[in-house]
Write a structure and sequence with these properties.
Layout (H helix, E strand, L loop, with lengths): L1 E6 L3 H10 L7 E7 L2 H10 L4 E5 L7 H11 L4 E6 L4 H5 L8 E4 L4 H52 L4 H10 L8 E9 L10 H25 L2 E5 L5 E7 L3 H22 L3 E5 L9 H13 L1 H4 L4 E3 L12 H13 L2 H17 L4 H20 L5 H14 L6 H22 L3 H16 L7 H8 L3 H12 L3 H19 L4 H7 L5 H12 L3 H8 L2
Parallel strand pairs: 1-2, 1-3, 3-4, 4-5, 9-10
Antiparallel strand pairs: 6-8, 6-9, 7-8
Helix pairs in contact: 2-3, 5-6, 7-8, 11-12, 11-13, 12-15, 13-14, 13-15, 16-18, 20-21
Length: 539
């Protein structure tokens, strides 16, 4: 059924047309009648219409203005204008608005019926034309999409060496793609939003493929415009670019500039951030895997450095291993001494060193765990509820590797350090607690001395043994000897877990001159012999 809208400011004209036309007999429906163009424009916005019958002279918005509006916004609507004798030539100017028919008032029912039947044919023609164009568009899109998919798979096979290089080159050649450059490098583009940095729900997973296709289209357009290489999608829906050109400063700058433009354009179009890794240069197609791997490795630094990365692996100089030993000692001292500024500087220095070394996630977590253990040792050395302090440290050790970014993980470590700092500062508030803390610190630094005694600590603190024993037990809940044995056993456990030293060597390192007595003491505290413990826990 054809939907018709009547527009005329004369109510009698509208009533006559409504009542004298056999709408149902023509398979038509008069869906509305409006008294001016403004009402008609609002009606069309809310209701589907096939044909508009409109007068010319009307208040607010006349027939010409309405025709202009429909032409610009609803080009599928067929327009019929009717007008008085003096307006007829004026109405003919509406040809620029694709008006289909002009009728001179007064209009007979037979005349209007004939025109409406002609307009129905025009509506059918426009709908058919629209269907044909949409069909061709879909076919074209499917063709290009399939062609791009085949091309992407062929390039990916070449880059990743998943098939014979010669076969891949021949397949690409059959597609009109020649690889005859002096040098090559691969860049990998990955959308931050759908990476391990975020918790991805089902809806996000569903939209990721669409967003990845947008990234590919933008990349392909820019790379083709610059004649710099070939864009393709890999099996993970990531966009990659195989750059081809001379290994010069100018072309290297061009590669980076293209990557920056792609990232900026993607941000403008769909509002998401990309991380980009640019692989090393290679001279032959069979070496492309090396370039791809280094580009993919660069993306992994997103854990350490955050999103929206652009890393050129030709410019990256790794610092190698990180040694935190001295900084960790300073951190422990600052916690015990109540020096907050020094503590914060230690955290900042270690964070900078770890990031600067560009280590992977597992190694970064290892360094963070070293920091946690150092903070934990400072805490347990004075904590009256030692078991609770150990439990808190162990919980954090397991929690850190589960964080999506290094920033989140080190944030937890800093929070832990600040909490311990506040606890130690509170303990330092009284003279007795301060002396007990200094005693525990002295034990931590001298436990390996087999001759370490209560007198040594009292001499160090310049207080009597009886006074010391009283305040030490009040603060720590135990005696000097219990604290010393506990410290020695903790150190022994660390050595048994992390080294291949023999039992007698460990006994000597933790202050036992008699290995046999060490074995007895260790079993008494842990329930296992040193050998049994090492067999179970040694990494």
């Amino acid at each position: 059924m054809y939907r018709i809208l009547l527009v005329d400011d004369e109510i009698l004209v509208r009533d006559a047309i409504r009542e004298n036309i056999d709408w149902a007999g023509m398979d038509c429906e008069l869906v509305g009648d409006c008294q001016n163009g403004q009402e008609a424009a609002e009606f069309v916005k809310k209701h589907p219409v096939d044909i508009v019958l409109t007068d010319i002279c009307m208040p607010y918005m006349d027939g010409m203005e309405l025709s202009h509006f429909l032409h610009d916004n609803y080009p599928d609507i067929v327009i019929v204008i009717f007008s008085g004798f003096g307006e007829f030539e004026y109405a003919k100017k509406a040809i620029q608005y694709n008006v289909s028919e002009y009728l001179l008032k007064p209009i007979t029912a037979m005349e209007l019926t004939g025109v409406i039947n002609k307009m129905k044919e025009k509506v059918d023609q426009r709908k058919e034309e629209k269907r044909r164009i949409e069909s061709l568009t879909r076919a074209s899109e499917n063709y290009h999409k399939n062609a791009q998919m085949i091309r992407s798979k062929a390039i990916e096979a070449l880059v990743t060496c998943s098939r014979d290089v010669k076969e891949s080159l021949e397949q690409l050649q059959s597609m009109g793609i020649e690889l005859e450059a002096s040098n090559y490098r691969v860049a990998v583009f990955d959308i931050d939003l759908y990476s391990d940095m975020y918790q991805i729900d089902v809806e996000k997973q569903q939209e990721s493929a669409l967003m990845a296709f947008v990234v590919f289209n933008i990349s392909n357009e820019i790379v083709e415009r610059e004649s710099a290489g070939i864009a393709y999608q890999d099996g993970s829906n990531r966009t990659c670019v195989l750059f081809q050109g001379p290994r010069t400063k100018e072309f290297s700058y061009k590669v980076k500039s293209i990557c920056q433009e792609i990232r900026q354009k993607v941000k403008e179009v769909i509002g998401i951030d990309l991380s980009i890794g640019i692989g090393i240069w290679v001279r032959h197609p069979e070496k492309l895997l090396f370039s791809y791997d280094t580009a993919a490795d660069a993306i992994q630094y997103r854990y350490l450095l955050g999103g929206c990365l652009l890393l050129d692996m030709e410019e990256i100089k790794k610092n190698g291993e990180v040694s935190l030993y001295e900084t960790l000692e300073q951190l422990t001292d600052s916690l015990k001494a109540g020096k907050k500024e020094t503590m914060e500087l230690c955290f900042a220095r270690m964070e900078q060193e770890i990031k600067g070394a560009l280590v992977d996630k597992s190694r970064a977590c290892m360094y963070l765990q070293q920091m946690i253990r150092a903070i934990g040792n400072a805490c347990t050395s004075v904590q009256t509820d030692r078991d609770q302090a150990v439990k808190r440290s162990e919980e954090l050790l397991s929690k850190v590797p589960k964080q999506c970014t290094f920033q989140q993980a080190i944030g937890l470590v800093k929070e832990y350090g600040e909490a311990v700092f506040e606890e130690l500062s509170s303990l330092n508030s009284s003279a007795g607690q301060r002396q007990a803390l200094l005693a525990l610190d002295y034990i931590q630094n001298n436990y390996m001395d087999p001759d370490l005694s209560l007198n040594d600590i009292c001499t160090y603190l310049s207080i009597s043994t009886s006074y010391f024993s009283t305040i030490f037990k009040e603060v720590t809940g135990g005696t000097f000897m219990e604290a010393l044995i506990r410290t020695r056993m903790d150190k022994a456990r660390e050595l048994l877990e992390n080294t291949t030293l023999k039992n007698y060597e460990i006994a000597e390192k933790v202050g036992f001159s008699d290995p046999h007595y060490f074995g007895i003491s260790f079993k008494k505290m842990t329930g296992k012999t040193p050998t049994e413990y090492a067999r179970e826990y040694r990494k």
